[in-house]
Amino acid sequence: MKKKCVESNNSDARNINDVLYYKLLVNIFMALNVVELATVSKVCKTWRKARSDPKLWHKLDLSVLCNKPFNVPRMLGSWKYSSERLTKVLRGILAQSEVRHIRCFVFNYYAYLKDEHLLLVARRTPNLKMLVLPAICNLSKEAIEHAISLWVGLESITITRMINHKNIFPAIGKYCKGITGLKFTIGFEMDHARALIQHTPNLKFLSLQSIIVSFRALHSVLENLKHLEIVNLCHSLIIDKHDTSNRPLLHHLRKILTCQNNNGCVICKHRMEGQNYLTKKALYEAVNKLYDHE
Predict the structure, then answer these.
(1) Cis peptide before 126 (omega within 30 of 0)
(2) Which of 120, 145, 179 is the last residue of a domain?
(3) Which of the residue ranges 7-21, 40-54, 65-79 would you say has the lowest mean pLDDT?
(4) Does residue 270 lie within any of the structural domains?
(5) Given this model, what pLDDT does residue 129 score?
(6) Is the model's pLDDT at 276 over the cut of 70?
(7) Straight-line distance from the first to the last Cα atom of the chain, in angstroms, rounded to the nearest whole number
(8) pTM (2 decimals)?
(9) CATH assignment at residue 74
(10) Do 152 and 248 share a structural domain?
(11) If you average pLDDT over every residue of the chain, what do you get?
């Protein structure tokens, strides 16, 4: 009887040690990128099991492609004439990834994205919640709609300069009813505002950080997107003469994010030198007037 108790205690101790070792491995592996995770899986069964933990695969960030062994140049439109190479790399990375756990997919910012690349990722990541597109794309209307139709659970997307909003927003409105967050990395104009109002009525978060923003377009979304809660205007340059006589009702808006210092933001000062944009002080005054709904 005593021997059985000792064996049971030893077994429990081993189980506890195994659990702790597994958790330790997962915590260490969280610091690795997708290429490094593929490497550690070859060490042993325990490591392979740990690298498959869902925590490690919530976000797949392809910024790693700028490093060895891929060496994507840090130039916009890189690999434009190496489409097959990018396809091969994407297939290899997705094959080594736990795709069923991926919730956020970040394309390499510099890589030139084509239809086949977008569709390859869309078919392999059906549970995606967040998508960040690269700076330069050459995507057809058909490819965009097909990809978006596979991401029905999409909640957030980053729109880049080469994505035709006339193609992507109707697809989002048709298939992705749960979209609540959008980030623009291009100038925000009235056409974009109209598209948001028409196709993303449930939007809660809008980021217009570090881009040129039409005040008329901003005014329009603030007035018409009734579920909008947070707008990020940090380092943005506001154009158009603003008219605050017709203020939108902002009782639903929780926060407008702007630079912490309206006169001392180095980034904004540098960007506005010699430009005919609203000064940061004028932006603050305009935003404060819009936000004053008492």
Answers:
(1) no
(2) 179
(3) 7-21
(4) yes
(5) 95
(6) no
(7) 77
(8) 0.78
(9) 3.80.10
(10) no
(11) 80
